[in-house]
Prior knowledge:
It is globular and about 45 Å long. The longest helix is centred in the C-terminal third of the chain and has 32 residues, at 186-217. It has one domain (16-211). It is mostly helical. Helices cover 58% and strands 0% of the residues. It is built from 11 helices and no strands.
Amino acid sequence: MTDEKGVWAMVKEWTRMDMAEFLEKMGQGLVPAEYRQTMPKSFQNFLQKKSKEEFGLTMSNIVWLGNQLESADYSEPALKNWVKREIKEYIGAPQVGRKYSIQQAALLFIVKDLKMLLDFEAIRKILGSIFNNPVEREDDIISPVHFYHAYSSLYDQLMNQTELLSEENIKVEIQQYLQNQNDLSKEDKAKIFDALMVAILAVRTNFLKAWAKRYVMDGKGKE
């Protein structure tokens, strides 16, 4: 089991940083042995692909991966509703045959995090500010996988510094991250800044909600 700052044990195993690194490796055509050993049979065809083929994920694959995350609760009906209705213009149709691409999976993980704080109208505003045509990911300001990795990494860094996040220390970490993104315009950096701020707050809210639930469901105050 993992924990956050050693304060309380989580039910799930993977941090968002684990997931971000896993998605990046899949984007390179790799699935490390330590992950292969824990995957269910539904991934076998997925894991036996030829080296030059792009990984494609079914919706059930994406749900299984999402449910490996700390404080996460993914369901296939909800995600299917999102791709058919709520974020249809940003996710697009399956891009690897009848399966979803790694970038599309990352986008669903991002939406799941943002849903903790925002309604879909606000989520579409965030997505539209940094992602464009789902068929041509090259025109995004930042790819979904890189964005997911960015806020996962920033969140980890912040929690290693303090358990109490303030607007100011989140701003400092994001600004330091963006200083190293030399290929981005000032306008694009401003858009990513806002999106990262919201995503980090959403992840923190996720943890706090799960923490509170433990006291409601498990009676932790009796220990």
